[in-house]
Structures are given as C-alpha cells and as structure tokens.
Amino acid sequence: MLKAFLDCFDKECNNKTTCFEYRKMLFRKGKDSLYKDKTTCFTARLTDVLPDGRLLLVDKEGKEHTYAFKEVQFII
After folding, report:
1. Distance (Å, rounded) from C-alpha 48 to C-alpha 56?
2. What percent of the chain has pLDDT over 70?
3. For the segment 31-48, what is each residue's pLDDT rounded down to a tens digit?
C-alpha cells in the first residue's frame, strides 16, 4: 500500500502545482513543534517531505533530520 502511494506521489510530483499545493498544506509546516522519535522528545520544524516520503525536520541547532513512516510522532 505504501509503495502504491509513493508511486502515485512520484507521478503526481512531476506536476509542480500538485507538489506545491501538497507541501503548502502539511500539518505544522514551518512551525517549531514537539516531536518524539525512538530515543527522545525534541523541538523541530517540519520543512519538507522528500520524494521518497520521508519527513525533513530541522532542529533548533539547524541540523536536518529525516524520518520515514512511523519513525517520528507529533506531540500534541
């Protein structure tokens, strides 16, 4: 199922308008928010979704981190 989604995402991302609209609507995009990975809770900013579906987060020190599906959680 995930592969089918990513295949569709890749095809649609050839359409720059679709990619722009998708990225513009990402939950908490560009806002400092709390996240939790397998080892810690941390504050970071969601900046993008990579073509393979991984989230790109930037922490307070400016370091980029990527997370695949279910590797990171939003703390609400």
Report:
1. 5
2. 68
3. 899 999 999 999 999 998
Q: Are the C-beta atoms of residues 21 and 9 closer than 8 Å to each other?
A: no
This prediction's pTM: 0.68
- Which amino acid, one-letter code, is at 7? D
d(CA 16, CA 31): 23
Q: How far apart are CA 49 and CA 39, in angstroms?
A: 22
**Cβ atoms of residues 2 and 53 within 8 Å:** yes
Residue 45: burial class (beta carbons within 10 Å; 0-12, 13-18, 19+): middle
CA 24-6-22 angle, 5° bins: 10
**35, 56 in Cβ contact below 8 A?**
no
